[in-house]
Write a structure and sequence with these properties.
This protein has 365 residues and is an alpha/beta fold. The protein has two domains: 129 residues, Ankyrin repeat-containing domain (Serine Threonine Protein Phosphatase 5, Tetratricopeptide repeat, Alpha Horseshoe), CATH 1.25.40.20; 220 residues, Rossmann fold, CATH 3.40.50.150. 37% of the residues lie in helices and 15% in strands. It contains 13 helices and twelve strands. The chain has a seven-stranded mixed sheet with strand order 8-7-6-9-10-12-11, sandwiched between helices. It is elongated.
């Protein structure tokens, strides 16, 4: 640790080559708030020391008890070249991990429900920490009850929030993005699909007069949420088509029908990062050309801004690989502590929201 604190790449390399009880992945919960060799090296800004540690197995996403990783400290201390390097390493690691997860799923299990995901971005190596740092994936969500509370939140069986009213300004921004991009909203000829109803915030906005799509498809899989939709009369709204079931089963059926959409929004709960990727692979058959617009609720790795950035970059690489442009518009969002009362853990921690805007790439570019 002392060599890492000094950014002494030569000493770190020597210690790791000769053994002497040293490990690049060691993490002592009693040392400097549960620090790691990579975190200590990142504090110094020594890219070479970090490179050596990573080559010897140091986890890029190891965090201390404050929930901060090497990338956080490098960013906080202004070591931008090191930040860029760590982002590249992290994105490569996550893409390889995703491929590994997919291989395990395809060779060992018949469905994703048969296994719990191996890891989420930012949860690979941690040294204690609060409940907010737990993985958000919940493979049993659809089989458990949900509860609508006080008209401003939807909670799952653990008391975690599925959706909350504070999201409304963000949902309005998302609605404007996916509807405005088609250029036909004023004529009422737009077709739009939302996957994940929750509290119905974005769907209610989409039903407002300035949008009023000609076809509004809502895909919802949770039986409790679906029952609430029927109770609230969503099945009787003009131009609304409710598709009850898992999107993994139902969206391919919509594709078989030949339905394409001007706007698509994705906001499911408790799923793994690979589920988002799977849905996005369907966009080539879902989104109208050339002006269709897709967006999703960007709650990726919300408890750590560095992990969040890595996740956004992974999404960007995946979508660019199948023919899309990806931009992130910044939105200021301030969620008061009062809003979280009655919720087991926060699912948003930042003051800036990066709203994804995904459009077809120029075929000539």
């Amino acid at each position: 640790m002392e060599a890492c604190q000094k950014g002494d790449a030569e000493a770190v390399s020597h210690l790791l080559r000769t053994g002497r009880g040293c490990s690049a992945s060691q993490q002592d919960p009693h040392y400097r708030n549960g620090s790691s060799p990579l975190i200590e090296a990142a504090r110094t800004g020594s890219l070479e020391t970090c490179r050596i540690l990573l080559e010897h197995g140091a986890p890029w996403n190891a965090i201390d008890k404050d929930g901060k990783c090497a990338g956080n400290y490098a960013s906080d201390l202004g070591h931008q070249s090191l930040v860029n390097y760590l982002v590249d390493v992290a994105v490569t690691a996550e893409l390889l991990l995703g491929a590994s997860i997919r291989t395990e799923m395809s060779t060992t299990y018949t469905s994703k429900e048969a296994t719990k995901p191996i890891v989420d971005i930012g949860t690979g190596s941690r040294c204690g920490g609060p409940v907010e740092h737990e993985p958000c994936t919940k493979s049993d969500f659809l089989s458990r009850d949900v509860c609508y509370v006080d008209g401003d939140k939807l909670l799952d069986g653990d008391g975690d929030a599925v959706m909350m009213e504070w999201e409304r300004p963000l949902m309005r921004a998302h609605a404007s993005v996916i509807m405005g991009g088609s250029g036909t909203s004023a004529t009422g000829k737009v077709s739009v699909m939302n996957v994940g109803f929750g509290m119905g915030i974005i769907d209610s906005i989409l039903q407002e007069e300035q949008f009023s799509p000609a076809l509004h498809v809502i895909v919802e899989a949770h039986p409790g949420v679906y029952a609430q939709m029927i109770k609230d009369g969503w099945d009787k709204k003009p131009n609304v088509r409710i598709v009850y079931g898992k999107w993994q089963d139902e969206v391919p059926k919509l594709i078989e029908e030949g339905i394409k959409f001007d706007g698509v929004f994705f906001d499911t709960y408790g799923e793994h990062f690979t589920d988002l990727e799977d849905f996005q692979n369907l966009l080539v058959d879902l989104l109208k050309k050339p002006a269709g617009v897709y967006s999703f609720f960007n709650g990726l790795a919300p408890d750590n801004i560095f992990f969040h950035g890595v996740a956004c970059q992974c999404v960007k690489l995946q979508l660019s690989g199948i023919g899309f442009n990806v931009e992130f518009a910044t939105c200021d969002i301030d969620v008061s502590d009062e809003a979280w009362k009655g919720v087991r853990r926060k699912y948003w921690h930042n003051c800036t929201y990066y709203l994804p805007i995904i459009t077809w790439a120029n075929e000539n570019s």
